[in-house]
Design goal:
The chain is α/β, with parallel strands linked by helices. The chain has one domain: Spore Coat Polysaccharide Biosynthesis Protein SpsA, Chain A (Alpha-Beta Complex), CATH 3.90.550. The radius of gyration is 18 Å and the shape is globular. It starts with 8 loop residues before the first strand and ends in a 10-residue tail after the last helix.
């Protein structure tokens, strides 16, 4: 039986329909006892039972034209911090699977990922009022000419972007992660909390480069896990098209987790 007093978690979905992997990840937090909210821009009829659906406009107005010129992940990078400030919930990407509940006594939830030691922001827990939040929200609300951590090469690349693009879109076109991991890594260092980052095994145990292992029935996904693992990022933005359009093979991690949580992949494949 799950506990009903876990800390709340929340995410954002831009679009009308969840993929089964997104259903799976949201349901995993519900199953772990976390009150789970999904903020949406459209009617999303296939959210899992137990997920509370709320309009994204409760947190901020989303410029869908800007989303069209960039990607849904672009504005989600702004949304997550505004959501944390307003609600205090832990941000979870819709492709973050809850392996174990987030402890209550863990004010900072963020971690290293991949092989490079940088920070990711797919799972973020921060005090609603803290310096890094102030820095991030000021960055998004008052975009500088260039992100202050960029080198000359990056600035020159931005200068070559088309004049008819918005300033924000130019930054995104120059560096896709300038509003996500780059910004979070930089401002975590400025605020002096970089050393609060959890090791890779806690939130991102499987490196992005190896994400095919989730669909391999002979892959040893759990070999990446440790006793400290809380979340497993499935990196759906890097999933090969074949896996997005087909039911996972029996025995694979995606299949086993779907079976355990009652998610039918065949009902929510990419069209």
């Amino acid at each position: 039986m799950t506990e009903l007093n876990r800390r709340p978690v929340a995410s954002l979905w831009i679009g009308p329909r969840l993929h089964y992997l997104n259903q799976l990840c949201l349901k995993s937090h519900v199953a772990a006892g976390h009150p789970t909210t999904l903020y949406v821009t459209d009617n999303v009829p296939n959210a899992p039972d137990g997920v509370e659906i709320r309009p994204a406009s409760e947190i901020m107005d989303l410029d869908m034209g800007l989303v069209g010129n960039t990607s849904p992940s672009f504005l989600s990078n702004v949304f997550r911090y505004k959501m944390i400030r307003k609600t205090g919930a832990v941000w979870i990407d819709c492709d973050a699977f809850c392996h174990r509940p987030f402890p209550d006594a863990m004010p900072y939830i963020f971690g290293e990922h991949g092989f490079v030691g940088a920070l990711n922001c797919g799972v973020i827990g921060l005090p609603a009022q803290c310096e890094v939040m102030d820095l991030l929200l000021d960055y998004y609300d008052n975009l500088p000419d260039y992100p202050e951590w960029w080198n000359k090469r990056q600035r020159k690349k931005m200068d070559k972007q088309p004049d008819d693009m918005s300033h924000a879109a130019k930054i995104y076109a120059t560096e896709r992660t300038a509003f996500g991991p780059q910004a979070f890594t930089h401002f975590a260092k400025v605020a002096g909390i970089f050393d609060q980052a959890k090791p890779r095994d806690v939130l991102y145990p499987v490196p992005f480069q190896l994400n095919d292992v989730f669909y391999d029935p002979h892959g040893r996904v759990e070999g990446h896990f440790t006793d400290d693992t809380l979340s497993v990022h499935l990196y759906t933005n890097g999933t090969k098209p074949w896996w997005r359009k087909h039911v996972p093979l029996p025995g694979s991690y995606a299949y086993r987790m779907s079976e355990a949580l009652g998610i039918d992949p065949a009902l929510a494949l990419e069209e």
